[in-house]
Each structure stands twice: as structure tokens, then as C-alpha cells.
Write a structure and sequence with these properties.
By secondary structure, the chain is an alpha+beta fold. The protein has helices at about 1-35, 40-45, and strands at about 40, 50, 60, 70. Strand 2 (about 50) and strand 3 form a beta hairpin.
Length: about 70
């Protein structure tokens, strides 16, 4: 009985630690992606977008860099 309780406690601790690491990785990815950046027209095209240079703000439309400013 005692071994089962210890084993259950170890498994529960490992599971909670794994969830904590997953949450930290998600938070890091969200902050890294949220930072505004400026891309070149060729980077916008390579990412699958279309540089809208004549539109107000000069943004990349679509693709990986959707919404990023084009320089």
C-alpha cells in the first residue's frame, strides 16, 4: 500500500511539472510572435503573402508575415 501511494505521488508530481513546462513554452512563443516587425517585400512574398506597398501603412497581406509592416 505504501509503495502505491509513493508511486502515485511521484506520477502526479511529474504530470504537474510537465504541464508547467508546457505552459511556459506557450507563453514564450506567444510573446515572441506578438512583437511587431518589419519585413522586406521579398520576405513577404517568400512567406506566401503579397506586399501592399501602395495601401496605407505598407503591410504584408496573407502568408506568414500577415499584418507586418513592409519596408
Amino acid at each position: 500500500m505504501r509503495i502505491r501511494r509513493i508511486l502515485a505521488a511521484v506520477i502526479a508530481t511529474a504530470a504537474l511539472a510537465g504541464l508547467g513546462l508546457t505552459g511556459a513554452a506557450t507563453a514564450t512563443a506567444a510573446t515572441a510572435q506578438g512583437a511587431p516587425s518589419v519585413v522586406t517585400p521579398s520576405e513577404c512574398k517568400q512567406g506566401g503573402g503579397t506586399p501592399a506597398i501602395n495601401d496605407a501603412g505598407n503591410y504584408c497581406k496573407g502568408g506568414t508575415y500577415d499584418g507586418e509592416q513592409v519596408d
